[in-house]
Amino acid sequence: MYQGIGGQANTHHTLLCGCMKKNNRVKEWFGRFRVPRAVVIVICTLPVALIVLFYILRQFPDVMGWVVENLSSPIRRFFGLLSSIYPISVMEILIVAAIIWFVYYVIKTIMVTAHRRSKLKILGKRVLPVLVAALYVWSLFSWLWSSGYHTKGFAEANGFAKEGITTGELAEVTRLFALKAKETSTLVQRDEEGLYIGDRREIFRMSAGIYKNITVEFPSLNGRLFTPKTMLFSWLMSRTGYTGVYFALTGESNINTDAPLFLMPATVAHELAHQLGVYAEDEANFVGILACVTSGVPVYEYAGYLRGLMYLSDALISADPDAWYEIRDTLSDEVVLDWQANHDYWREQKKVETGIGFLDSFLTSLTSALSGAVDSVYDGFLKSQDQELGLLSYGACVDLLVEYYSAGPIIQ
C-alpha cells in the first residue's frame, strides 16, 4: 500500500519536472527572441503618422469624402454587423475592460518600479505601450468617425441653404409641431393618471423600419440598421446628461434606458442617423426627428414631434416670448404632463439624496463636476472637428426644421 502511494508520488514528480523543463525552454526561447528595433520603431510611429496624415488630409473634403465612402463607412458597417451578434453593448464591455486593465497596469507599474534602481527607464518602458495603444485608438477613431465631419454634410448634400430663418417662420413651424404633438399624444399608451407607458423592447424592435419612408425623399439615408443596445451604465449617462451614444469602433447605437421613455424613440432615431452616416449633431437631430414623424409608428411620431417642439420652443422663447406663450396655452394636458416629467427627471439627476447632509452636498458637487467635465471634453472635441457651435449644435437643428417645413412639405 505504501509503495503504491510512493510510486504515484514519483510519477507526479516526474511529470512536474518535465513540465518545468518545457516551461524553462519556452522562457529561454522567448529570452533569445528579440523584436528588431526597426520593427519597434515602425509600430510606435505608425499611429503618429496616421494621425498627422489625417489632420493634413482633413483640409480636403473630396479626399475625406472618398475615405468615408470607401473605407470608414464599410468598416463601421462591418463592425456593426459583428457587434450585433451580442445583445449587450460591446462598447461598454471594452470600456470597462480597458479601465480595469489600466488600473491593474498602473498598480503593477508602481510595484515593479518601486524596488528598482533605474526607475525612469523602467517607467518609460511601461508607459510607452500604453501611449502607443492610445494613439492607435485615436488614429482609428479619427479615420473611422472624425473623417465624416470634414466631408459634405447632409444639409449641403441635399440643398439646404442654412442662411437663417425669420421669427415668423419659426413661430409658424413651432405652432405646427405643437398641433401635431397634441394630436399624436393621444395615440400612445397611458395609464389612468395620463402618464406615458410603453415597452422599451418594442421601441427597439420597431426601429428597423422607421427610416423606410424618409429614404424616398432622401435616398442617402438608405442603409442597414442594427438594433440599438441597452446601456448597463444608463444611470451614469443620466448623471452626465446624455441619452445615447453612437460608438464608431463597434458600430453600435447605445441608448440610455433610464431616461424618460416617451422621448426614447427620438433618441434611437438620432443615434441611428449617426449609424447611417449623418455626422453633425444638428443634422442628426433633424434627420432623427424627420424619420420619427414620417415613420407611421405612433410612439415614434409623438417622440419626434415632442422633441422637435422642445428645440423649437427654446429658440422661439428667446426670439418672441409672447408668440411662444400663445402656443404653449394650446398644448394638451398629455403633452404638458410628459414635458414636465422630462424636466423633473433631468432636474433630479443634478442632485444626490442619501439623507446625509454633508455626503449629499459632496456627491451632488461631484455629479455636477463630472457632468461639466464630460460636457467640456465633448464640446472641445466637436469644436476641434470644425463644429463651431460645439454642444450648442444639438439645438441648431431648429434652422433645418424651419427651412424644411417653411418650404411647404405637408406633415402626414
What can be said about this structure in brief?
The chain has 412 residues and is mainly α. The chain contains 17 helices and three strands. It has two domains: 37-150, no CATH class; 160-406, no CATH class.
Write the layout of secondary structure elements.
Layout lengths: L1 H31 L4 H21 L3 H23 L6 H25 L4 H26 L9 H4 L9 H18 L15 H7 L7 H4 L11 E2 L3 H7 L3 E4 L4 E4 L8 H12 L5 H13 L4 H22 L1 H8 L4 H16 L8 H28 L12 H10 L6
Parallel strand pairs: 1-3
Antiparallel strand pairs: 2-3
Helix pairs in contact: 2-5, 4-5, 7-13, 7-14, 7-17, 11-12, 12-13, 12-17, 13-14
What report would you give on this structure?
This protein has 412 residues and is an all-alpha fold. It has two domains: 37-150, no CATH class; 160-406, no CATH class. The chain is built from 17 helices and three strands. Strands 1-3-2 form a three-stranded mixed β-sheet. The longest helix has 31 residues, at 2-32. The radius of gyration is 27 Å and the shape is globular.
